[in-house]
């Protein structure tokens, strides 16, 4: 029995090691700088209708790379994930409409400023709010980590309003348009771009003293890249290419195109047709993550679950500790710890995909171990006693007598855990994995039709889960027949 447990453990470790090895191998072979960027910050960072990542930041870093003779690998993971990845040495730099502040200078080295933006307040169309004084006693929506959030928090006592913060710009806008919040603070070009694209809000204040955007690297790291960025930026401003990039998204011709495209009346079927490839790609990534994770989680769960019932106290204790830690830790915290914390401790990079697989394996494996242990304990203890009295060793008695009966008890829990794993993949969007939920966020950042897009995503999840439920009932009937 112990030999089998050791063998299963070796297989699990080998699988996880292969993921890490091939990820590290790929990264080592790349002769590029890995740059993190946002995905929901138009016109600086977003995805166009063809599924290409674009915006002022994207065009600028590509133009600088071409000018200075280096390559970039863009990682559109979202602002928070990008910043944390750079801090953990997972990425070389970040360009995501990041405002240069004294606090951030403690952790990052910034380039020369490449854009200046003032802060404005916007409210729902038809709102009676016209000034900061009208906010007294009301709630204001903000986006985490932005200068707009810092500005609003600095004046909220003076004007008597409260704040609530969101990770995504679209969530902030929806909170205002739905009436939950009275206003939102945002950089002027970002807010103006959204309104031109059909967002039902209006700007009611003039731009206040804002800040400058800069490209950032971890403090003391990648100074050669920072120098290349500054040199390239200077060249682009001199030859006029910088002005062309900005005008492409904020000039009069861009505004005309946006007004023409900003109908906001696309039906669900039309949205599905427009974003079919992105949605299918996100669904494929979700299913891929689920299947690999459930296989590894099952192996881990069986090992730890069997350890729980072995007649060796220290093995029981070890099993209980593993279950307690990974079942008790929130999945979001575990994902961030593995993707951000572990590289900080070890100095080795872990790809977002590998970090996601490890996260799901540990979390779902702990839950699997609990019901494996419970299924074995649910078998009448007399079965083991009878098997041992016939001369069967513990391992053979467990394998031939107890487990066949326990598996029938565990099957519903196994299938239920498979469905839970499928849904839990959505949490991995926080580390930038482009699964179905993250795909939805990217689409919304472009068309600002959050309700319709989330309806499509919800229907896709429900369809897949319904099919899995039918399959689970079929398997359960076959086993119990």
Describe the structure.
The chain is an alpha/beta fold and 481 residues long. The protein has three domains: 2-11 and 272-480, MetI-like fold, CATH 1.10.3720.10; 31-114 and 214-262, 3-Layer(aba) Sandwich (D-Maltodextrin-Binding Protein, domain 2), CATH 3.40.190.10; 116-212, D-Maltodextrin-Binding Protein, domain 2. It is built from 19 helices and 13 strands. The chain has helices at residues 2-29, 56-68, 79-87, 102-105, 147-159, 169-177, 188-196, 223-239, 241-250, 252-261, 268-274, 276-309, 313-328, 331-346, 352-377, 381-389, 394-424, 436-447, 450-480, and strands at residues 33-37, 46-47, 53-54, 72-76, 93-94, 108-110, 115-124, 139-143, 162-166, 183-187, 201-203, 208-213, 216-218. The strands form four sheets. Strands 7, 8, 9, 10, 11 and 12 form a six-stranded mixed beta sheet that branches. Strands 4-1-5 form a three-stranded parallel beta sheet. Strands 2-3 form a two-stranded antiparallel ribbon. A hairpin with a 5-residue loop joins strand 2 (46-47) and strand 3 (53-54). Helix 13 packs across helix 15 (352-377) and helix 14 (331-346) packs across helix 15. The chain starts with a helix and ends with a helix.
